[in-house]
Amino acid sequence: MKPRLVLVLVLAILAAGGGWVWWRAGTQQAAVRPALPPVPDLSAASPALRDAIVAADARARGRFTAVKGLVALSRLYHANGYYDAALACYTGLEKLQPAEPRWLHLHAFIIAGYGELDPAIKMWQRVTQLAPDYVPAHLRLADALLKSNQIAAAGAEYETVLKLSPDNAYARLGLARIDLEAQRWDQAREKLEAIVRQTHFNLGYDLIVSLYERLGLSSEAASIRGSSKASGAYRDFPDPWLSALMDDCFDPYRLGITAGVAAQSGDTAGAKRLLLRAIELAPDDVSSHFQLGGLAVATKDTKLAREQFERCTQIAPTFSDGWAQLSNLQADSGEAIAAAATLKEGLEHCPDSPGLHLLQARRLRDAGSAGEAIQEFKTSIRLRPNEPEAYVELGTLYINLGQDEVGISLMRLAFEADPGDPAALGALAFHAISTGKEAEARDWLTRIANQPRVPGSQAAVLYQAYQQAFGRTFNPKPSGD
Prior knowledge:
481 residues; mainly alpha; Serine Threonine Protein Phosphatase 5, Tetratricopeptide repeat; 26 helices; 73% helix; 0% strand
């Protein structure tokens, strides 16, 4: 074949291929256009978010970038709270990529939040078919089924989760809810007590309080209420497909919430990335700096922690926790003089901070200045009378000074502030044992036996002391048995 003829044939093939690409791109562009929602009102959005949405919308209207632009738009709209616009994008993507489960999953998440459970259930059922090993889809399906009163189907989904993830506390919580609905009190109690121990009261404490009250276990209910004060609100389970949207979020608050969930689930690198993004978007937002400092402490990145806590004191001098954490970090690093100076400056800026006065009391106590420490403990109690820590530590100091009755009276106040506080319970039980008050000792030990927050080693020591004092064994039996 002549070289010129070969060249002509090659050019013809390339032209044909290029024409097909051009045609296919045009077809995708035509398919994307109907899915594009009108750009919503962005007057309250940051300039960076407005620019990102305008750029993604332009890509979605381009011939060769239509699908990628639609994906980018869906992420931006969903991550920043423009849910109706996100739904329009997902509807289009589901038609373009029917075998991709993510669009259905994210679509269902939004409409379930609107209360549209039946269509959300159908979508999640399809997701679990397309991605049978994706645990969050099974959990969301199970929760939606439970809310729709499809109890048997919900239970089956929770059991499926436990097959995929045997220690999943969220699935166990769902099964406990089903037991409660069926009035299977013993089974529900067993599950809930295991869940609150496993999750350190992050899950199940509200349900177990209600159950204990129904069973007449008022002291146990009060103890769990005390525990839940420090545990925070219910946290959603990790959902990587949902969390991935945060890379396109321009809201520091949402980024911080998601970072907290990521850190709790062990994804510290992901949490750090989100917090750095939040700081980049809002460099003077003290909450992001403080959260990143706490994460750095947990991961033993002292340099980063110091930087973040120092930044907290600079941008928000009246934020007492920033001073407290910086001072603690300096003290832990052996910088006693710097730690004292930081605490002093913090108290100057935050004279009514119970936490800083408590920290000052501890420092004075450890330095042997008992009289000054007592005054600082009392100030902390006056400023925050509904928390047990200062009562317990001041009570312990008085006991160490030989003023047992004053110390025990403070332990009783700590118990009133938090009936589940392990230190207060232990001190009150030991005092009853050591003063020969057997009936009172048994009462305190029963409370301890029914309080999951009390370490087993602490309870064992008290049980042994009881046996030595009264010549008989204390058998810890949960109330109601």
